[in-house]
Specification:
Blueprint: H1 6-14, H2 20-41, H3 44-68, E1 71-76, E2 96-101, H4 104-114, H5 129-132, E3 133-138, E4 144-150, E5 170-171, E6 180-185, E7 190-201, H6 206-211, E8 219-223, E9 239-244, H7 248-251, E10 255-258
Parallel strand pairs: 4-5, 6-10
Antiparallel strand pairs: 1-2, 3-4, 6-7, 7-8, 8-9, 9-10
């Protein structure tokens, strides 16, 4: 099993093939025929499992399409007063206008998928690799210099296990790991000490995101189940995104602003 993101690293250094987008489009177009061929060839229990999987995919797709379709909604015309007398039997009725709207929940999901949040800190100062990592020399004569120690605050999950020293390239020191953050709710004007779920995006680099490095401007996911937030349908919101507003390695704590 490979120990590094070689493909992503190659993309970052040398870019993609000139016809990458076209090849990807053609591959996607061929996928339909490939699935059809597989469905016709399979027999027995494998065919049943494949059919069940395809049915679930189609049902999910139909639900998504239905949810994204515009629906009718009535809006009250409170300010609009029409000239002329209104009959007595219509006096208690409120005048309404039919409009096409998309539910707020769908809009929110679309926004999240596009990755367009109205963040408090839209731009951050770029960091050099020397500032982020320290070279760790290894080997009998300390000639090998392929290991790196992360100098910044990082987040690792509960079920995290370090790789054997022979294969571990990026070392995240235990003293620089954090699991909780001071999250401020902009509307409630209150601060809560919440557990972190994951690091969603570090603006410095995709590598830092995968390593869970937290710097100023990083988008983190925090557990907000204690706050009792609910969706429009009444479901409990377990996690929400927040942006780090300070330099955690300097302050010794993580301060973040909830994105609502």
């Amino acid at each position: 099993m490979p120990q590094g993101n070689y493909i992503e690293e190659s993309y970052r250094r040398f870019g993609k093939r000139y016809d990458h987008a076209e090849r990807l489009r053609k591959k996607k177009a061929r996928e339909v025929h490939k699935v059809s061929k597989t469905a016709q060839k399979l027999r027995g229990i494998k065919a049943k499992l494949f059919s069940k999987k395809r049915y679930t995919e189609k049902a999910t797709m139909k639900k998504t399409i239905k949810a994204h379709q515009e629906k009718d909604a009535k809006t009250k015309d409170a300010d609009e007063v029409k000239g002329g007398a209104v009959p007595a039997y219509l006096l208690d009725r409120e005048q309404s206008r039919r409009t096409k709207v998309l539910s707020n929940m769908i809009k929110q999901k679309r926004k999240e998928k596009a990755g367009k949040w109205s963040v408090p800190i839209p731009k951050v100062k770029a960091m050099t690799e020397d500032e982020m990592f320290k070279i760790l020399r290894t080997g009998k004569r300390k000639k090998k210099a392929w290991k790196r120690i992360v100098n910044k605050i990082s987040f690792v999950g509960d079920n995290f296990t370090r790789k054997p020293p022979k294969f571990e390239r990026y070392i995240r020191p235990s003293a620089l790991r954090m699991k909780k953050a001071n999250v401020t709710h902009p509307e409630l004007k209150m601060t809560f000490y919440l557990e972190m779920v994951s690091v969603k995006k570090n603006p410095q680099s995709a590598l830092y995101t995968s390593l869970g490095v937290i710097t100023k401007g990083t988008i983190i996911e925090v557990n907000v189940s204690e706050l009792g937030l609910v969706t429009q349908t009444g479901k409990v919101i377990w996690a929400k995104y927040a942006q780090v507003t300070n330099n955690p390695d300097i302050d010794g704590c993580i301060n973040a602003l909830l994105l609502v």
